[in-house]
Specification:
Protein name: PilN domain-containing protein
Strand content: 15-25%
Largest sheet: 4 strands, antiparallel
Keywords: Membrane, Transmembrane, Transmembrane helix
Number of domains: 2
Helix content: 55-70%
Order of helices and strands: HEEHEEH
Pfam families: PilN
Distance between the termini: 148 Å
InterPro entries: Extracell_DNA_Util/SecSys_Comp, PilN
Radius of gyration: 53 Å
Organism: Vibrio paucivorans
Length: about 190
């Protein structure tokens, strides 16, 4: 007795199972790849969002710094204006102090019998005009001015004899000199010390 075995249907079944498994693995691979791609896309999107937040924060911080910088520049300009004003005030104060110191020092240099009518002061340059009852007193005044450590460039510009004033004859004079700025400062420090 002979048995006839047909192996074709069994092979066909195996092939069918292999195909199904292949399709299942293919679908699984596609799903896994899609899942990975979705996960990577979500991760990159999240990183992008975080980076955008950082950029927005930096832009905001930058704009705040720009505002502070512009306020600082404005404050610096105001400070410079105040410093200039202060410099002008100090300069005026120094000139006033020099004038006061000069006016305090001048009586010691003018001898008795010499009368000053007019003092013209332009910064550190001074012109005196007045009268004297004798030439000797004018010479003494000129000598005092030339020897003074406060003064320099002493010049007698004119002496006119016999000018009638107050019922007497006088010599009128005009003298000019410059005040040494450093000497006034030294004189001031010496008087305070």
């Amino acid at each position: 007795m002979l048995y006839s075995v047909n192996l074709l249907p069994w092979r066909e079944q195996k092939r069918q199972q292999h195909r199904q498994r292949f399709y299942q693995l293919l679908i699984l691979a596609v799903l896994v790849a899609g899942g990975i791609q979705y996960g990577v896309g979500a991760f990159i999107g999240e990183q992008n969002a975080i980076q955008q937040q950082r950029l927005n924060y930096l832009k905001d911080y930058n704009s705040r710094l720009d505002k502070q910088l512009s306020r600082l520049k404005l404050t610096e300009q105001e400070h410079q204006v105040l410093l200039q004003r202060l410099s002008v005030v100090e300069s005026l104060q120094q000139q006033r102090n020099k004038s006061t110191e000069f006016m305090n020092a001048i009586p010691a240099m003018i001898p008795e019998g010499v009368y000053v009518d007019k003092i013209k002061m332009n910064t550190l340059h001074v012109e005196l005009t007045g009268i004297s009852d004798s030439m000797a007193r004018l010479a003494t005044m000129l000598d005092n001015l030339e020897k003074s450590p406060l003064l320099e460039q002493v010049e007698m510009h004119s002496i006119v004899h016999g000018k009638q004033r107050f019922g007497k004859k006088f010599q009128t004079f005009k003298v000019s000199f410059s005040i040494k700025p450093s000497q006034l400062a030294n004189n001031r420090e010496g008087s305070h010390g």
